[in-house]
UniProtKB/TrEMBL annotation:
<feature type="transmembrane region" description="Helical">
    <location>
        <begin position="20"/>
        <end position="42"/>
    </location>
</feature>
<dbReference type="InterPro" id="IPR059112">
    <property type="entry name" value="CysZ/EI24"/>
</dbReference>
<protein>
    <submittedName>
        <fullName>Etoposide-induced protein 2.4 (EI24)</fullName>
    </submittedName>
</protein>
<feature type="transmembrane region" description="Helical">
    <location>
        <begin position="266"/>
        <end position="292"/>
    </location>
</feature>
<feature type="transmembrane region" description="Helical">
    <location>
        <begin position="148"/>
        <end position="172"/>
    </location>
</feature>
<keyword id="KW-1133">Transmembrane helix</keyword>
<feature type="transmembrane region" description="Helical">
    <location>
        <begin position="204"/>
        <end position="227"/>
    </location>
</feature>
<keyword id="KW-0812">Transmembrane</keyword>
<feature type="transmembrane region" description="Helical">
    <location>
        <begin position="66"/>
        <end position="95"/>
    </location>
</feature>
<feature type="region of interest" description="Disordered">
    <location>
        <begin position="311"/>
        <end position="337"/>
    </location>
</feature>
<feature type="transmembrane region" description="Helical">
    <location>
        <begin position="107"/>
        <end position="128"/>
    </location>
</feature>
<feature type="transmembrane region" description="Helical">
    <location>
        <begin position="233"/>
        <end position="254"/>
    </location>
</feature>
<dbReference type="Pfam" id="PF07264">
    <property type="entry name" value="EI24"/>
</dbReference>
<keyword id="KW-0472">Membrane</keyword>
Length: 337
């Protein structure tokens, strides 16, 4: 299993200007749509999340409230650091760079600030956690619960934004897959597939419904440290695991080939888990649908085209080898005579 090489190839594909344009064209309009919907439905959603919080004891809210607030601080710190750096130093560091170099620097900056602020928070975790807990203890329960209700509401709207982007990209995925085919396989055409759209989109809609149900069910778990991260990570990975594979396979594989690919359950799990991690990183999260489809694309073409050609070349000797065998057989027959 070449998951590491597939990840590197997918990252390189994400750095292309075409992919970045697609992500921005889909992500920015949807972001404004969900900001508008959040403004319209903020009160009922925060009332719902406040009702959920009322089921949880205050001691747990105070303990995990510090964890949620710390995560929010990290999220904002990454965004602000990236924005300030680009605003102050982009002309000096990025001027005159080639297109792909410019995109690579942007991704590297986001990743660097994400790791830097995570390491800084972990280094001073005891101090930060103590101060936030002490601050929450001084505040009335209603104030704390209302603040956490706002954060949970923001989390729900963020999920809706990512789901809607995944749905749009999935619907128009053929152009993205064709671009990958042209980049990596030249003039190779998409395979005529017998996988129906009803099956493909039926799986997508079922996984989205399951995701929303699971998101509501895990709301109380979001107040348990570590378990909240694992729960969110799992439901995102579960969403991508089957639907993204079927979406890519419906353009590249026959039904028989798809069934054979399903036997590689380890790759399904790894690809979905790695892709779901991107949803926790600001800005980069809008590239998650492209990334997971890219991972499946490289795996499928490796199994379908490259490995198949290697097996064929081993089973059928090349022309020079065949000629050598013919000459050898002719000489043996001549010696026998």
């Amino acid at each position: 299993m070449k998951i590491n090489s597939f990840i590197i190839q997918s990252i390189n594909d994400m750095l292309s200007l075409d992919t970045i344009k697609l992500a921005l064209i889909t992500g920015i309009p949807l972001l404004f749509v969900w900001l508008g919907l959040g403004w319209l439905f903020w009160d009922p959603v925060t009332s719902f999340t406040a009702h959920i919080i009322s089921w949880v004891p205050f001691s747990i809210i105070r303990a995990n409230g510090a964890f949620i607030i710390t995560f929010f601080i990290w999220f904002v710190a990454v965004l602000v650091s990236y924005a300030l750096f680009i605003g102050l130093f982009s002309g000096f560091l990025l001027g005159g760079k080639k297109e792909k170099r410019f995109e690579a620097i942007n991704f590297t900056l986001i990743f660097f600030f994400s790791v830097f602020w995570a390491a800084a928070i972990m280094y001073r975790w005891d101090f930060i956690d103590y101060e936030i807990r002490r601050f929450l203890t001084l505040l009335p329960f209603d104030t704390v619960s209302q603040g956490l209700a706002w954060l949970l509401a923001a989390y729900l709207f963020y999920n809706c934004f990512l789901i809607s982007e995944y749905l749009v990209i999935f619907t128009f995925r053929e152009a993205f897959i064709r671009a990958l085919m042209e980049k990596h396989l030249g003039d190779t055409e998409l395979t005529k597939t017998d996988i129906s759209n009803v099956r493909t989109y039926g799986r997508l809609y079922w996984d989205i419904v399951w995701f929303f149900i699971a998101s509501l069910l895990i709301l109380p778990i979001l107040f348990i440290p570590i378990a909240n991260f694992l729960a969110v990570w799992f439901i995102w990975a579960w969403l991508y695991k089957e639907s993204a594979f079927l979406g890519v396979c419906s353009l590249l594989c026959t039904n028989e080939e798809m069934q054979s690919f399903r036997e590689h359950k380890g790759y399904f799990l790894l690809a979905s888990l790695v892709s779901a991690l991107l949803n926790f990183i600001p800005i980069i999260s809008i590239f998650t649908p492209f990334f997971v489809m890219d991972l499946y694309f490289h795996w499928i073409i490796e199994e379908k085209f490259i490995n198949h050609e290697e097996v064929t070349s081993q089973e059928e000797p090349s022309l020079p080898e065949q000629e050598k065998q013919d000459v050898q057989e002719y000489q043996e027959e001549k010696e026998e005579q």
